[in-house]
Write a structure and sequence with these properties.
This protein is α/β, with parallel strands linked by helices. The chain contains ten helices and seven strands. The protein has one domain: NAD(P)-binding Rossmann-like Domain (Rossmann fold, 3-Layer(aba) Sandwich). A seven-stranded parallel sheet has the order 3-2-1-4-5-6-7, sandwiched between helices. β2, α2 and β3 form a beta-alpha-beta unit. The longest helix is centred in the middle third of the chain and has 28 residues. The protein binds NADP nicotinamide-adenine-dinucleotide phosphate. The site of NADP nicotinamide-adenine-dinucleotide phosphate (NAP) has 29 residues, from α1 and α6.
Length: 266
């Protein structure tokens, strides 16, 4: 069982939603938290609350697609002698557009943030973790990392890609004490639909009803940390959307019927 007390975690996507919720939950364990995202004002707000809850914090702001700034952040943290016990990857964006109308540049943008950004920060920290005898890597996929639905083609692809990468990495790091926990949330009440991009690359700006009615970020955080503590490899949680994973496995015909009819913008 992993113990969080006094440990150091690097959290991407810490400025909002699921990552912010996990930061607060981890802060209660007198942790050191390195908080990343682009929005420095939001990161400062999260850092303040984490400190109130008992954590020491450090803000490292960068865009997940800016590898130079990402590497500089990693170099500066490691140069200060900080030992990273875990990397928690929550940074990401969603999509609201039909594949037929979406230019490849938009598909690429979603992949750059969700897939390449996540593997880039992982690769930047992995040698440090291995040299220190191990560590934790949390990866945020989605239920749509397990199936595809309308309006999410690139998003779903980016999440599927994370499974392939991190399952391979798990196999490659066997015996090196690297725990990889892949999250597959259903619907969590965050700003993810507001921040999703459309076919033009602009913000969707609409709070989907299903999103607003989703599981709270606080409950999500508790589920994530319980699963991490228990060393789970995959964590499927977060309401009705998770049922489709089981339906796809056991009743594929029904899944394909439902997937084409579910309005995923509601
Ligand atoms: N909410 C759900 O129902 C749900 C379900 C399944 C999976 N997920 C996944 O959960 C993760 C967190 O999403 P959320 O629901 O918490 O949404 P959110 O509230 O919109 O948070 C997204 C986070 O990602 C960061 N981010 C976005 N683009 C970035 C970029 N280019 N560079 C660096 N950071 C970036 C944002 O920080 P800045 O704006 O400060 O950059 C923010 O902290 C995402 O990977 C999402 O795909 C969410």
């Amino acid at each position: 069982m992993m113990n969080f007390d006094g440990k150091t975690f690097w959290i991407t996507g810490a400025s909002s939603g699921i990552g912010e919720g996990v930061a607060y939950e981890l802060a209660k364990h007198r942790t050191q938290l390195i908080l990343s995202g682009r929005n420095e004002e939001a990161l400062a707000r999260v850092a303040d609350r984490c400190q109130t809850l008992g954590a020491a914090t450090r803000i490292e702001a960068f865009d997940l697609t800016d590898y130079e700034r990402m590497q500089a952040a990693v170099d500066s943290v490691l140069a200060d002698g900080v030992k990273i016990d875990g990397l928690m990857n929550f940074g990401g964006i969603s999509q609201r557009s039909l594949a037929v109308e979406t230019p490849v540049e938009i598909d690429r943008k979603v992949m750059e943030i969700n897939f390449f950004g996540t593997i880039a920060i992982t690769k930047a920290l992995l040698p440090h973790m291995i040299a220190n005898g191990g560590g934790l890597i949390v990866v945020t996929s989605s239920v749509v990392g397990k199936y595809g639905i309308t309006f999410r083609s690139a998003y779903s692809a980016s999440k599927h890609a994370l499974h392939g990468f991190f399952e391979s990495l798990r196999a490659e790091t066997a015996g090196k004490n690297i725990q990889i926990t892949i999250l597959e949330p259903g619907r969590i009440a965050t700003n993810v639909s507001l921040n999703a991009i459309t076919k033009t690359g602009e913000k969707y700006g609409i709070m989907d009803k299903g999103q607003a009615a989703g599981m709270s970020a606080e409950e999500s955080a508790r589920i994530i940390l319980r699963a991490v503590r228990r060393g789970k490899k995959e964590v499927l949680y977060g309401g009705k959307a998770t049922l489709l994973v089981h339906i796809r496995k056991w009743l594929p015909g029904l899944f394909y019927f439902l997937a084409s009819r579910v309005d995923s913008t509601k």
